[in-house]
Amino acid sequence: MLHGLAHRVVGMFRRLSRLAVTTVVFSALLVPIASAQADAPIADPLPTPGASGIGLELTEVAQLPKSQPVPPPTDTRLVRYNRINYLGEVPDGSGRMFVPDMNGKLYLLEDGVQHAFLDLGAAIGPDFHTHRGLGSGFGFAAFHPDFSRNGKFYTVHTETGSALTTKKPDLPSPANTQVHGVITEWTASDPRADVFSGTHRELLRVGFASYIHGFQEIGFNPTARRWDEDHELLYVASGDGGIGVSTTVPQDLARPQGKILRIDPAGRDGVNGRYGIPPTNPFVHTAGALGEIYAYGMRDPYRFSWDRVTRRMYMGHIGEKAVDAVYEVRKGANLGWSEREGIWQYRRGDPSCGVFPLPADDAKYGYTYPVTAFDHNRLSSQRPCADSGNALMGGFVYRGSKIPSLRGKYIYGEGVKGLLYYADEREMRAGRPMAVSRELMVYVNGRLTTMKALVNDPNRVDLRFGQDAAGELYVLAKANGKIWKVTGARTFASCGAGHDLVAGTGSARSWQPVTPSLWRFPGREVVLAQPGVARPGPRRPFEYAVLRKGPAFGSVQVDASVRLDTPVAESNRDVIIVFGHRSDTEFYYAHLSSDNRIYPHNGIFVVNNADRLRLDHQWDAVRSVGAPPAVTDTAWHRVRVKHCADSGEIAVYMDGSPYPLMTAVDRTFTSGRVGFGSFDNIGRVRDLRVQGKGVR
Question: Which CATH architecture has domain 89-298?
Answer without folding.
Answer: 6 Propeller (2.120)
